[in-house]
Amino acid sequence: MSAVTVRDLSLSFRHTPVLRNISLEVQPGAFFMIIGPNGAGKTTLLKVLANLIASDKGNIEILGKPLSSYSKRQLAQVTAMVPQQVTTDFPFTVAETVLMGRSPHIGLLAIEGKEDVDIANQAMEFTDVAHLADRKLDQVSGGERQRVIIARAICQQTKIILLDEPTAALDPSHQLKIMDLMERLRREQQITVIMVSHDLNLAGMYGQQLLLLKNGKIEKTGTPQEVLTQEQLTSSYNCSLFVDENPITQKPRVNLVPEK
C-alpha cells in the first residue's frame, strides 16, 4: 500500500490552470521532494494533498483510502503539515505550541493528559528544542521556530509529514539541521516525508525520489540522478546550469553558470 497515490489531478484558479493531470505515487517511509521553478504549482500540490484546497478533478488516496473519506480530525491523525511561515501574532510558549499537536487525538475541548505531555516532551527532545520549552515562540530564532513546528508535527504521531520549504530563509547550518532531522525521523520512525524545496542541492542530497514541476505539469520524476541532469534542469529553469557529482555524497551537484 502506498503512502500517497495521486491520479490525473487537475486544478484551476479563475480558469487559469495551476495543476495539470498530475499523477504520482509515494511509498511508505520515502523522502519525496517536489521541486520546480517559481509558479510551478509546488505549494498548491502540497496544499491539495493536505486537503487545504480542493482539486477540480482527479483521485487522491492517503494510506489506501480516498482523501475525501477522511474527516478533518482523521486526516490530522495520519498527516501533519509544516507550513513555510508560522504566525507569531499570538505567541504561545514552545511547549504549548508543540502540545497543540495532540489536538487530533484528544479533541478540541479535552484536557491533555500525562501521556500527551510525555509525547510532547519526547518530540521536543527529538528536535532539540526542549531547552526552549518556556520561551515564547516569538523569542526564538527562525531555525529554532522551524524545529518547534516540526516537533508539533511529530507530536501528532502521523504516518506522513508534508513540508513547504522548511529551509527557506535559513542559513546553511540550520538548513542541514532541519534536513538531517527529517532524514532521522524518516529512518528511525518510518515516517513518509513529502517536501517542497527550491534548493536543488538539498533535494539531490536528501531526496530518494524527486518530482519536477513546471507550469503545473510534471516534467520528470525519478531518482536525483535521473531528474537533476544538466539538460533537464536547463530546460525546466530556463537558465544555464552545470551539473556534476558531489565528491563527498556522490549525488548530483547543481551549479549556476553566470551569463556572459
Question: What would you say this structure looks like, in words?
Answer:
There is one protein chain. This protein is α/β, with parallel strands linked by helices and 260 residues long. The chain has ten helices and twelve strands. The protein has helices spanning 42-49, 72-78, 94-99, 103-106, 114-126, 142-155, 172-189, 200-206, 224-227, 230-237, and strands spanning 4-13, 16-26, 31-35, 57-62, 65-66, 79-82, 160-164, 192-196, 209-214, 217-222, 241-245, 252-256. Strands 6-7-8-3-9-10 form a six-stranded mixed sheet, with helices on both faces. Helix 5 (114-126) crosses helix 6 (142-155). The longest helix has 18 residues, at 172-189. The termini are far apart. Part of the ABC transporter complex HmuTUV involved in hemin import. Responsible for energy coupling to the transport system. Pfam families: ABC_tran. Keywords: ATP-binding, Nucleotide-binding, Translocase, Transport.
Please outline the helices and strands.
Elements: E1 4-13, E2 16-26, E3 31-35, H1 42-49, E4 57-62, E5 65-66, H2 72-78, E6 79-82, H3 94-99, H4 103-106, H5 114-126, H6 142-155, E7 160-164, H7 172-189, E8 192-196, H8 200-206, E9 209-214, E10 217-222, H9 224-227, H10 230-237, E11 241-245, E12 252-256
Helix pairs in contact: 5-6
